[in-house]
Amino acid sequence: MDIRSRVVHGGDQPRDAMGAVSVPIYATATFAHPGVGESTGFDYSRIENPTRTHLERLLADLEQGVDAVACSTGMAALACVGELFAPGDHIIHSDDLYGGSIRYFRTVMAKNGVTFDAVDTNDIEALRAKIGPTTKAIFVETPTNPMMLVTDIAAVAELAREAGLLLIVDNTFLSPYFQNPIRLGANIVVHSGTKYLGGHNDSLAGYVVVDSQELAERIRAIFGSVGYALGPFDAWLQIRGIKTLALRMEASQSNAITIAGWLRGHPKVRAVHYVGLADHPGIEVTRRQSRGFGSMLSFEVDEEATAIAVLNRVRLLQYAESLGGVESLITYPYTQTHADVPDAERRARGINERLLRVSVGVEAASDLIADLAQALT
Ligand SMILES: Cc1ncc(COP(=O)(O)O)c(C=O)c1O
Q1: Pick from 196, 228, 243: which residue ends a domain?
Q2: pLDDT per residue over 259-301, tens digit each?
């Protein structure tokens, strides 16, 4: 089935007994047993809940994985994966990542004895050089937040396979609509469902999707033991959001292409980082591994005062963290998403006081451009 149909009907879901077209919200913590030693298949909502199970099957289908768990946030999903590792393990990650992931690695996981190295995951030899006897996994985000760098997932997957490492990919920015890392050789895909999957800036969620039964069993055991579970109301909001994923991804991408082109011609804009621009260094890899470019972009203006003025003046775009919703949002990575990354590292990666990041929504491109134009004057 085409992904445009799978977002609406995916996951080989059983029909509701009452014929409900919208999956019911099972607002229950526990489930009565039909008899001693018997179960309806659902015992306790921390472990499984029918609304969440529907959503998990849908995610596994969209990402072409064996199983998926739906967590309360994207960070909870990452923490669930983090529990696969033990003190002494070493993980290599892309050097340009969501700041919250870096913070989680360097504080919580480091405290638990896991060590990290950051590299340009497009440089396969640099990546290979970091692999040591305790290395257990490679963690990649592509495209990256906020510099829109692209990693060749299949190339990294080959190296990971050779070295016996897990490849974990954060697929938040393109969503399963545009990119399926498991098809390219990844073992685990994580998502912040708060972003494109939910799509309306009204619910927090996260997902872990795995490529094997063995990983599914390990992740399910951690998920149930720790209690990362997404509640049934948010699971329902996510299911509703995902039904329009295809429409939203296409509409916001089309806007992003128009806006990236317009920003390029603006006299106060020094650089535009958007994967869909013909001269973006990752465009060829993206054409091979993805079905689209997405709708995240960042741009550098001439000076800090211009960046601050834009944030103060925008009216239709909202100055807010997060991304992937129908509403266009603009953020300041230097003091927001990446505030906790050491200054020298931020600057080395181009995250400075002149950089702005836009999550392009589904409004009319002409209105978004008019707003940016008045904010950039
Ligand atoms: C790429 C990426 N991964 C993970 C997360 C964390 O997700 P959440 O905020 O749902 O915990 C975010 C949040 O911004 C993100 O941008």
Answers
A1: 243
A2: 999 999 999 999 999 999 999 999 999 999 999 999 999 999 9
Share of the chain above pLDDT 70, in %: 100
Q: Per the residue annotation, which of 152, 170, 211, 371 is the catalytic one?
A: 170
Answer yes or no: do 147 and 160 share one domain: yes
Q: Are residues 91 and 200 in the same domain?
A: yes
What is the span of the domain harbouring residue 249? 245-375
- Asked which of 181, 216, 243 is the last residue of a domain, the reply is 243
Ligand 1 nearest-atom number relative to CA 78: 4
CATH of the domain at 313: 3.90.1150.10
**Whether residue 227 sits in one domain with residue 84:** yes
Residue 180 and residue 62 in one domain = yes
| Whether the predicted pLDDT of 362 surpasses 90 | yes
Check if 315 is active-site.
Answer: no
Residues enclosing ligand 1, CB less than 6 A?
73-75, 98, 100-101, 141, 145, 170, 172, 192, 194, 204, 206, 322
What are the tens digits of pLDDT across the range 163-196? 999 999 999 999 999 999 999 999 999 999 999 9
Whether residues 20 and 75 share a domain: the answer is yes
Q: How many CB atoms are located within 10 Å of the residue 8 CB?
A: 15
pLDDT in tens, 139-167: 999 999 889 999 999 999 999 999 999 99
Residues 161 and 18 in one domain: yes
The whole-model pTM stands at 0.97
Query: Based on the domain organization, do 271 and 183 belong to the same domain?
Result: no
Length of the chain: 377
Look at the chain and report how many structural domains it folds into.
2
The confidence score (pLDDT) of residue 18 equals 94
CATH number of residue 140's parent domain? 3.40.640.10
| pLDDT score of 349 | 86
Number of neighbouring beta carbons within 10 Å of residue 70: 31
Q: Is 243 a catalytic residue?
A: no
